[in-house]
Specification:
Blueprint lengths: L60 E3 L13 E3 L26 H15 L3 H11 L2 H12 L13 H12 L2 H5 L4 H12 L6 H14 L12 H21 L7 H15 L7 H17 L59 H5 L23 H16 L1 H13 L1 H5 L5 H14 L5 E3 L3 E8 L3 E9 L2 H4 L3 H10 L8 E9 L2 E11 L29 E8 L5 H13 L9 E10 L1 H15 L7 H4 L9 E2 L17 E3 L20 E3 L4 H11 L4 H12 L2 E5 L6 H14 L1 H4 L4 E5 L2 H13 L5 E4 L6 H4 L3 H7 L7 H27 L2 H12 L1 H8 L18 H8 L13 H6 L7 H49 L4 E5 H6 L1 H4 L6 E4 L7 H7 L6 E6 L30 H7 L1 E6 L2 E6 L2 E3 L2 E2 L4 H10 L5 E2 L16 E5 L21 H15 L9 E5 L2 H12 L2 E5 L1 H7 L3 H4 L10 E5 L4 E5 L8 E7 L15 H8 L2 E9 L1 H4 L3 H12 L3 E2 L2 E3 L9 E3 L2 H7 L26 H5 ...
Helix pairs in contact: 1-4, 4-8, 7-8, 7-9, 8-10, 9-10, 12-19, 18-33, 19-36, 21-22, 22-23, 28-33, 29-30, 29-33, 39-40, 39-46, 52-53, 52-56, 52-61, 53-56, 56-57, 56-58, 57-58, 58-59, 58-60, 59-60
């Protein structure tokens, strides 16, 4: 966004210099609502106009702070040279010494202004250039001159004039294009900051002169010197626009009295003329309205064109002359209601804003001010009703008013917000618009569509809404997207309020919802990739990468308008329509549940005001109210009625529940209304732990029916409150109190109070609220209480069951309506016509056109007539004139023109929707009524349970949400803890009718109630707020004055308060901060003076001042701008916390870190999470805290336990607001805010400052920018106190107890690392440890020093004389030194043993080996000497028993004897693989060996095969390149193809490098190393025998006749020997006819070196040998691997077969129970995708075993390609190796085709079976029929081709399978067509069935002829014949014979054995001696392959023979 590319933060090394801020200059949304309604609301590099230090005149320093944004590299940045921010500024603009000496003349100024206007109105580039120039130093000098000029109102050439100079200047400043340009933000801020000056010192005189000129030049008919009316209006508009921008860009501008006066003057001159709506006048009016709103503390509210003028006085609201004019609500207003939700009675006001209320913005809402409590004329009601009305309207404005204003903003800027986003800048513009102008944070979601409506009993009518993922989330991976949504605060379930907003033209719709269900997949369910996700339905927030879905529910179930709107939106924006124009908006700051119940209860009280207790004291006391009659003028508030005549015994209040011996005598402490209060107070103060103030507060609480107990922090308010409750419960029986209500605003405060009650011994407590994090408090939940105290009401169970059944029945009816609405428009109209106009529907169905007549009626053809009626157009049907709907209805349906049909259809469609909507509204209303009855039945039992409790703890929100249950309780006492932070409306709604006594405990000088709008706060305004919504009832009563009368005594008295004044928490120095500023009468308890000093720090109280700016906010998140962060402060806090934790003094929880912002707390937690430090055990810490005398007996000899732990686990982290009522020994505060605008954010209020300053007991350290805070009066006073006590500065002094003379100061996080790394100081510790050594560590605290483990060597001697070799901190223990030759009792001599065993040799275990005969098995085993008599010795001999597999048992004898079984055979299989030279390494197993898993050894000079050995290799395609000097051409064949070059028999003529002798090797081979040179070789090499025929040595061989071949293993032989060895003549035979080499399919294993058998693959001379054998090996691997894969897939198909029926039934049941057809369609789609998965795997397998994928085919392709590149004759291009295809055909290709047909047949029959189930809807069945039909024709063609191919290659088994599948597919096509309604000619069908029957008869013949290959298919043939003869649903089941064949096939090629080929060329292996022992047939074609006694059949060849035949 615009902040990118701005100057960076301060550079390192300057920790205290102010860095350039890249934060926004707008008001913090988290602290105050933004007053910046302009895109220029953020500011950077603010120009204050201050005088730089040591400069007599105004000078600016230019320097470059980094790259300038938007390419403005030439413009310097304005700053001030080294000016300290905490000095006073003495610069004034009217000082003549500060004015530069050169100024422009009048003409030059006008020329400059004219040129500027031309440039900003010309092009964007010229505009940017001019504004950049104006923001430069020279330009700002011109601005200053224009600001300080005295303008003439008359024509002048000597002075600048208002019309020609000032107006032009204003036009430049207010130009809309300039203000909206993001690239000019920085420059515009600079210019406007100069205009404003310091504290308005330029703006005030300039606008004063401007207003004077406007007043003087105002048009007047009597005075011709004025301006033209239009020109004057334009000048006024320019002035108001610039003035408004000044106010928006400078927060403190509204506080300047001068600017306030100018604002009122502008409003005055703007209102003196009758301005009619429209044009410039409307803009002026809008600006004036916003100006006054800012200056008077009001919000910037959009205002319409309604005006009150002097020419229409009848419409001006009237009031007394000295009072504010009040525009009353509703019909009481002189102008009438503002909108449809403006009523005089709050009972008529909707809680949520209505559409009319949202779009009505021309008049402000009626909001009662605080004066309504005093003046009768300020409100239209009296008494309690007035009170309730005030609270209702203000609370609604603070909550629903935020929704209204935000929705209004969206509608006003609809086009901008919904405009298409084409570039990232478009997003930036939208975010800026929302950030600057939205009155409340919002989140917008685009691309909205509505999936479905449904109804739930618990939540009501719900809607599933689909929307686009945000731009950032779309870029996430699937796991990160799941994680983001899981942690995100967006769309929180049951909390977030969401609106669907639609705007079409001038009309708009706004519907409010609550998030009902927020679905994010769990870790186990989530997918980690996005493959295939985009095709499926969107069912949650994070699975889909582009879209998300959320379930919403209507806020109000029974609102008929919202229901009708929702139905309309659901029809218009369904997921199928894809229409734009709908926006979903979330309001993250508004939690509907937190205020809806309050407003609802206020309505209830308003209707029944007499039910509110204490109305006499709570109702507003107006100026004309009569005095209150009281019984006691000194105590006007009477005591509670239940105490009349009663005496309370407080003795039990002060007994210790944990100490039975600590009791107080009964009746020693009593309370009675007849006894004097002073006496009771004195008695309590003397006989109880209460001080005088606490005793007085307790007596006061029982003396008044409404009591206030107030006290400063730490005075024990909660303690006194607990004693009050204990005292009441001790007298509960005599008083008849019923349950005592204990209420709090937050669950946190409630848990604290209930915890104190538990400590006081109160157990009978029930808690209603959200789950508590404290386990023993959660055990008090009402749900748990009900289970333990069940209270049954007779007959209640039956009534509950009846109402539940009724509710479920209504739910089903509503769900049916939702399904109808979702079914589609045609189905909807069809049903409507069937119900209401059946004749019209029949007329449409009975088409008069034969071509359109509907065929045989089928269930899936019902909607077709309407579709045909709409689509068919008769040319003659042309309307003459437009007819009414009645006329159209009466006309023949098929005679209507297309337009008329469409009109009539739309009318029916809307009528159908309206009827369903009306039915929906009726049912939801009925459901709501019955649900209330159902709920009330449960409340009966709950009420009886609650009446049994002593204490009911509940939050104020929880109370109103359970109002029906609680308002009937007989509770007489209500206690409110922390009442000062509870809104008055919350207290009022908690006062149920039975309450007689309200005890409010709190402190109104601490936190006030939280509200959303600062405009309604007491803080807004100088004289107190205007509305004071955040004034609690506690504060209002505490400040109230009552005119009371008793007899003749009439006086004004305040409300009685029980005041506490002795604090027991803070050290006096800390308490002085709040004593001086807020509590002048606060006293310190003597124990606070005894607190110890803070460990490691010189001062217990300090303010660490710094100048490190806060971090910029994230502009993309509207909530982020509310919560600030300051990473520098966070690092400083972490360093200080870690330092204090290292002191070893503070236990867990005694150090607390406070900050006003949640985000800062989050950063602190993240930083502390990663810090691990030492921690002393708490028990040891308590021991260490003893003084030396107490510890002398035991501590000195014991080292404390030191362990590692996270610092975070020992520190409490909280925000200031959540820490009220809590305390800690040490408090560290991070203020966060540091900016040049001096905005201190949340901590500007004295109440919050009070809380922050009063939490610490021993010490407090504030880290913050004092100059940012000092403008707040209370902070100013606090800073003065810090400075007076010398507790203020940029560095904190630490204190080292080891080196007190060492002064250590820290001012940055890095200082802690360098100055006190171990928690002490930078010096070495040096103190002596207990062991006597000196401590070598850095200085650390004493307590940690005592826990140090000395790392030096031990110096303690041993008794044996050996030294101790351990570290000093370790115990010496036994001596580990070794001694030698020690005699043992057994007679052996130990060669060595540890010293500690020498004293007792019997303990040594002799290790000598001796023989022992085992008594059980008589085996003789060797054992260690010490175990020769051990009965536990186990026999280690091998068992040796013969296992069923024939192998001996390899387990130990003892193992088999103990277990009683031999277990599994563990012998390695060891069978040699037939496809490689390895053997099977798997342990003994049944069935075939698995494929070889070792790395493939196939390699060539170009590389190595990357596959495993059991996988087919990829043939090398690189050129061979073998060459020699005696042949012209080198081998140009691919490396995997046998070479086309003949071997050379001549000696190599090259010279060896080094010796330069002739090479001894054969030509064409690599020359050997020099050591093999025959001239240079050693005798050993020369004497080696290399000719095994002639027995010649290397020295004797004639190299010229018989060169030597050197092998890679190092051996060497003569060429003739190796040629014979490799049988080279076999591989170079020539085909006489063709004349080219032929590929040989060899069968022998590749031979290695004759000496060492090392594989030989790199001897080019024998390439043809190696490659030929290698090709054969690759083919074997291919066959074996493919067969194994085939068996695996076949097994998966069998598994699928076994589960089909069950899966079908499960799917049908799910579809039947689906709430609508869309869900059913998704279920079927998912099922089809799953069933297709295996189908796809089979297809992949089929492709992988195609002929082109086989090794020989690949090699042939490589050869053909290479030959094509070399040949010059086109006729030879297609030549290839001469090999017979049948010789390499393995049958696997056809086997894969059959498998694919089987899978496809199974899937299609499965779909068809499901489609024939009648419980599925017609549409879903049709979709399945269509899916089956789409696959059948290709399937039939494929099996037809397969049958023909199998006949050619003699594969009868596969031919039979192809015929069977052809029959199955053909019959399926017939049945599926019938199900679709397609009529098939009878003769055609009969022909197909006859043809398939004949084909199956042929199958039976083939199966009988080839029983070995096709006999397995007898069962399948029979099932297919049944299907062909009868129309049944086929159920495919693989026969047992087929399973056996597949298993045998898998084993065929996997084991050891020889390879053979049958007469048809099909391969097989034989394992016994090379040929079968019995007669056998080929597994593929059935031809005989072997006879008895290993005799082969004629035509069967081994691979060796085959090799020779093709050679």
């Amino acid at each position: 966004m615009a902040d990118q590319g701005r100057p960076n933060a301060r550079q390192s090394g300057q920790p205290h210099r102010r860095r350039q801020s890249n934060t926004s200059n707008r008001s913090n949304a988290g602290d105050t609502p933004s007053l910046n309604g302009n895109p220029l609301a953020s500011s950077q590099n603010r120009y204050h106009g201050r005088r730089p230090r040591n400069q007599p005149s105004q000078q600016y320093q230019t320097h470059q702070l980094g790259p300038r944004p938007h390419g403005n590299h030439g413009s310097p940045v304005l700053s001030f040279r080294g000016q300290p921010r905490y000095r006073q500024n003495n610069y004034h603009t009217n000082n003549e010494n500060n004015r530069p000496g050169t100024e422009l003349s009048v003409a030059a100024l006008q020329e400059f202004l004219d040129a500027g206007i031309d440039r900003i109105e010309c092009t964007e580039d010229s505009r940017n250039a001019f504004i950049g120039q104006l923001a430069s130093q020279s330009g700002l000098e011109k601005v200053r001159q224009l600001l300080e000029t005295e303008y003439s109102t008359a024509y002048s050439i000597l002075k600048p004039t208002f019309q020609f100079h000032c107006v032009r200047f204003l036009r430049i400043l207010s130009n809309e294009a300039v203000l909206r340009a993001l690239s000019l933000e920085q420059q515009i801020r600079t210019i406007y900051n100069v205009v404003y000056g310091f504290n308005g010192e330029r703006a005030i005189p300039f606008f004063t002169r401007t207003v004077s000129c406007l007043t003087a030049l105002q048009p007047n008919d009597d005075d011709q010197s004025g301006m033209d009316q239009d020109e004057w209006n334009e000048a006024l508009r320019l002035a108001t626009t610039v003035f408004l921008n000044i106010l928006r860009m400078n927060q403190n501008a509204a506080l300047q009295p001068g600017l306030q006066d100018i604002g009122r003057q502008l409003a005055k001159i703007a209102n003196t003329d009758d301005m009619t709506p429209g044009g410039v006048l409307s803009l002026i009016h809008q600006d004036i309205s916003n100006i006054l709103s800012i200056l008077t503390g009001g919000a910037e509210v959009p205002i319409g064109t309604q005006r009150f003028t002097k020419k229409d006085p009848s419409k001006r609201p009237r009031g007394p002359a000295n009072e504010e004019i009040i525009d009353l609500p509703g019909r009481l207003s002189a102008l009438g209601p503002r909108h449809d939700n403006d009523h005089e009675l709050i009972s008529d006001i909707s809680i949520l804003p209505t559409k009319d209320e949202i779009i009505s913005d021309y008049r402000l809402e009626f909001l009662p001010t605080r004066r309504a409590y005093e003046l009768a004329s300020q409100h239209h009601q009296e008494g309690v009703r007035r009170l309730i009305d005030i609270q209702f309207r203000l609370l609604r404005e603070d909550t629903s008013g935020q929704l209204r204003d935000a929705a209004r903003f969206i509608l006003q800027y609809w086009n901008e917000l919904t405009a298409p986003v084409l570039t990232p800048r478009d997003w930036s513009v939208k975010r800026k618009l929302v950030r600057d102008l939205s009155p409340s944070p919002i989140r917008m979601y685009f691309g909205i569509s509505i999936q479905r409506l449904h109804f739930e009993v618990k939540t009501g009518l719900e809607v599933a809404v689909e929307f686009d993922q945000s731009r950032a989330v779309r870029r996430f991976t699937a796991p990160k997207r799941h994680w983001w949504w899981r942690k995100s605060a967006e769309l929180r379930e049951s909390k977030s309020i969401v609106a669907l907003i639609e705007k079409t033209g001038e009309d708009a719709n706004v519907i409010f919802f609550i998030v009902a269900k927020r679905t994010v997949p769990s870790h186990s369910d989530q997918s980690n990739n996005d493959e295939g996700v985009a095709e499926g339905p969107v069912n949650d927030l994070s699975t889909h990468p582009e879209r998300a879905m959320i379930t919403l529910r209507l806020v109000t179930l029974t609102n008929p308008q919202d229901q009708a709107k929702l139905v309309g939106l659901a029809m218009k924006y369904s997921t199928t329509s894809k229409q734009p124009g709908l926006l979903m908006v979330e309001f993250p700051r508004i939690i509907y549940k937190s205020y809806e119940g309050i407003l609802r209860c206020l309505k209830f009280i308003h209707e029944n005001p007499t039910n509110l207790p204490f109305g006499k004291w709570l109702a507003p006391r107006l100026d004309n109210s009569a005095a209150l009659e009281v019984q006691d003028i000194n105590s006007p508030v009477p005591p509670p009625a239940y105490l009349s005549g009663a005496t309370l015994d407080f003795s039990a209040c002060f007994a210790d529940p944990e100490n039975a011996n600590h009791t107080v005598p009964a009746n020693s402490l009593t309370f009675s209304l007849t006894e004097g209060q002073d006496v009771m107070v004195k008695n309590l103060a003397e006989r109880s732990p209460l001080d005088h103030g606490q005793a007085k507060a307790l007596v006061s609480a029982f003396s008044h029916e409404i009591s206030l107990t107030q006290g400063p922090p730490g005075c024990g308010k909660s303690y006194v409150g607990v004693k009050m409750v204990v005292g009441l419960l001790a007298n509960k029986a005599s008083l008849g109190l019923g349950p005592i209500l204990c209420i709090c605003y937050t669950n946190h405060a409630l848990d604290q109070f209930l915890n104190e009650l538990l400590k006081a011994g109160i157990k009978n407590i029930a808690r209603i609220g959200s789950p508590s994090p404290i386990s023993h408090i959660e055990a008090l939940s009402f749900d748990t209480y009900k289970k333990a105290h069940q209270s049954k009401v007779r007959g209640l169970g039956h009534q509950i069951t009846t109402t539940r059944t009724e509710l479920n029945g209504i739910r089903e009816q509503i769900s049916e309506i939702c399904s109808k609405l979702e079914a589609g428009s045609v189905v909807l109209v069809q049903g409507y016509l069937e119900e209401h106009f059946g004749g019209k529907l029949r007329e449409i169905v009975d088409s008069p056109f034969p071509c359109l007549s509907i065929g045989p009626e089928t269930e899936n053809s019902v909607p077709r007539p309407l579709e045909l009626w709409l689509e068919h157009i008769e040319t003659a049907a042309t309307p003459v004139e437009e007819r009414s709907l009645d006329e159209l209805f009466d006309s023949p349906a098929w005679s209507l023109a297309p337009v008329e049909r469409l009109r009539l259809y739309q009318h029916w469609h809307q009528s159908a929707i309206d009827k369903l909507t009306q039915r929906l509204q009726y049912l939801t209303s009925d459901f709501d009524a019955r649900k209330k009855v159902h709920t009330s039945l449960f409340l009966e039992g709950d009420k009886k349970c609650l009446e049994q409790v002593d204490i009911l703890g509940i939050t104020t929100v929880g109370l109103v949400n359970n109002h029906e249950l609680i308002r009937t309780l007989p509770a007489k006492v209500i206690v409110c803890e922390e009442a000062g932070e509870v809104l008055e409306s919350h207290i009022l709604t908690a006062l149920i009718p039975s309450v007689q006594h309200a005890i409010l405990i709190g402190d109104h000088l601490q936190l006030r109630p939280k509200i959303s709008s600062r405009l309604l706060s007491k803080e807004k305004g100088r004289d107190g707020g205007k509305y004071n919504l955040d004034e609690s009832l506690f504060e209002r009563l505490a400040n109230a004055q009552y005119n009371v009368v008793h007899g003749n005594d009439d006086r004004t008295v305040g409300f009685p308060i029980g005041q506490l004044n002795i604090q027991r928490r803070m050290h006096p120095s800390i308490a002085n901060l709040v004593r001086t500023t807020l509590y002048p009468e606060l006293e310190d308890h003597k124990r606070t003076t005894l607190y110890p000093e803070v460990a490691g720090v010189k001062r217990r109280l300090f303010w660490l001042d710094h100048r490190n700016y806060e971090d910029p906010s994230d502009p993309s998140d509207p909530m982020e701008s509310m919560s600030k962060t300051n990473k520098w402060e966070a690092r400083m806090v972490v360093a200080l916390v870690t330092y204090l934790a290292r002191q070893g003094v503070y236990k867990a929880g005694q150090i607390a870190v406070l900050t006003p912002y949640v985000n800062q707390m989050r950063i602190l937690m993240e930083m502390l999470e990663n810090i691990i430090d030492y921690e002393i055990n708490e028990r040891d810490l308590e021991d260490l805290e003893l003084d030396d005398d107490e510890a002398a007996d035991g501590l000195r000899g014991n080292r404390p336990e030191v362990k590692q732990s996270k610092v975070l686990d020992r520190v409490r982290m909280a925000t200031v607001d959540n820490f009220q009522g809590e305390e800690a020994e040490i408090i560290i505060v991070s203020l966060v805010r540091s900016n040049d605008r001096k905005e201190c954010g949340f901590l500007r209020t004295p109440n919050r400052i009070n809380v922050l300053l009063s939490r610490a007991k021993h010490g407090m350290y504030i880290i913050g920018d004092a100059t940012t805070s000092m403008n707040v009066p209370m902070w100013h006073n606090v800073i003065e106190l810090f400075e007076q006590g010398h507790n203020f500065g940029p560095k904190l002094q630490l204190h080292c107890t080891r080196h007190p003379e060492k002064k250590t100061f820290v001012g940055s996080p890095e200082d802690f690392e360098s100055q006190c790394p171990e928690g002490g100081c930078a010096e070495k510790c040096g103190l002596r440890l207990r062991c006597g050594h000196s401590c070598e560590f850095k200085c650390h605290p004493k307590l940690l020093h005592d826990g140090v483990r000395c790392p030096k060597d031990c110096s303690r001697p041993r008794n044996c004389g050996h030294p101790c070799r351990r570290k000093c901190f370790e115990t010496c223990g036994i001596c580990p030194e070794m001694v030698y030759n020690v005699g043992l009792p057994c007679g052996h001599v130990a060669a060595r043993m540890p010293c500690w065993q020498r004293d007792d040799p019997s303990r040594y275990l002799c290790q000598e080996m001796v023989m022992r005969i085992m008594s059980v098995c008589n085996h003789q085993v060797k054992v260690r000497c010490f175990r020769k008599t051990d009965p536990n010795v186990k026999c280690t001999e091998k068992c040796g028993a013969t296992l069923p597999c024939g192998h001996p048992c390899l387990r130990s004898c003892s193992e088999c004897r103990v277990s009683g079984t031999h277990g599994m055979c563990t012998k390695v299989c060891g069978l040699a693989y037939s496809t490689c030279q390895h053997d099977c390494k798997k342990t003994c197993h049944k069935g075939p060996c698995p494929p070889c898993g070792r790395p493939c050894e196939v390699r060539c000079k170009h590389g190595k095969c990357p596959n495993k050995c059991g996988e087919a290799c990829f043939p090398c395609a690189e050129v061979c390149g073998w060459e020699c000097e005696h042949q012209k051409e080198k081998c140009n064949m691919p490396c995997s193809v046998p070479c086309n070059k003949l071997p050379c028999d001549k000696r190599c003529e090259k010279l060896l490098p080094g010796c330069k002798h002739q090479c001894p090797s054969v030509c064409g081979e690599k020359c050997p190393p020099q050591k093999y040179c025959r001239e240079c070789a050693t005798p050993a090499i020369l004497g080696r025998r290399i000719d095994y025929f002639m027995l010649l040595t290397y020295e004797e061989v004639d190299l010229d006749e018989d060169p030597v071949v050197f092998l890679g293993c190092g051996h060497y032989f003569t060429m003739s020997n190796l040629d014979d060895y490799f049988e080279l003549e076999k591989y170079y035979s020539v085909n006489r006819e063709i004349g080219r080499p032929r590929v040989l399919l060899g069968g022998e294993a590749l031979r290695g070196c004759p000496d060492c058998r090392h594989p030989l693959r790199h001897i080019d001379r024998y390439n043809r040998v190696f490659k030929t054998v290698l090709l054969d090996e690759l083919t074997k691997r291919f066959v074996a691997r493919s067969t194994s894969q085939y068996a695996d897939l076949m097994q998966k198909l069998r598994d699928m077969e076994s589960k089909l029926e069950k899966q079908q039934q499960e799917l049908i049941e799910k579809v039947r129970l689906a709430s609508n057809e869309t869900i059913g369609r998704k279920l079927i789609t998912t099922y089809k995708q799953k069933s297709k998965h295996l189908w796809r795997l089979v297809q992949q397998f089929k492709n992988s075993v195609a002929k082109t994928e086989q090794p020989l085919a690949k090699v042939n392709a490589l050869y053909a390609s290479a030959l094509a590149k070399q040949t010059k004759d086109d006729s030879d291009v297609n030549q290839s190796f001469d090999f017979d295809q049948s010789k390499i055909e393995t049958g696997i290709t056809y086997r894969a085709d059959c498998l694919a047909a089987k899978a496809q047949c199974m899937v299609l029959w499965d779909w068809y079976t499901i489609s024939m189930n009648r419980t599925i809807t017609i549409a879903l069945r049709n979709s399945l029929h269509d899916a089956v039909a789409g696959e059948l024709n290709p399937a039939i063609k494929q099996v037809t081709d397969l049958r023909k191919d199998c006949q050619k290659v003699h594969l009868p088994g596969y031919e039979v399978e192809a015929r069977i599948y052809h029959a199955l597919f053909s019959i399926l096509k017939i049945q599926n067509d019938k199900a679709k309604g397609i009529t098939l000619d009878t003769e055609v069908e009969a022909g197909i069935r006859t043809k398939e029957s004949n084909s199956l008869a042929e199958c039976e013949v083939i199966a009988r002829k080839f029983p070995g290959t096709a006999g397995r298919l007898h069962g399948a043939i029979g099932e297919a014949k049944k299907l062909v003869q009868n129309e049944i649903i086929y159920s495919h089941v693989t026969s047992a014979e087929e399973n056996i064949v597949v298993a045998a096939m898998a084993a065929r090629f996997s084991g050891a054995g020889d390879w053979y080929y049958c007469i048809n060329g099909h391969p097989f292996t034989i394992g016994e001696g090379g040929m079968p022992m019995e007669e056998a047939r080929c597994p593929e074609c059935g031809q005989p392959v072997g006879g008895r006694n290993q005799m082969q059949v004629s035509g069967v060849r081994s691979v060796t023979e085959l090799e020779e035949s093709v050679g």
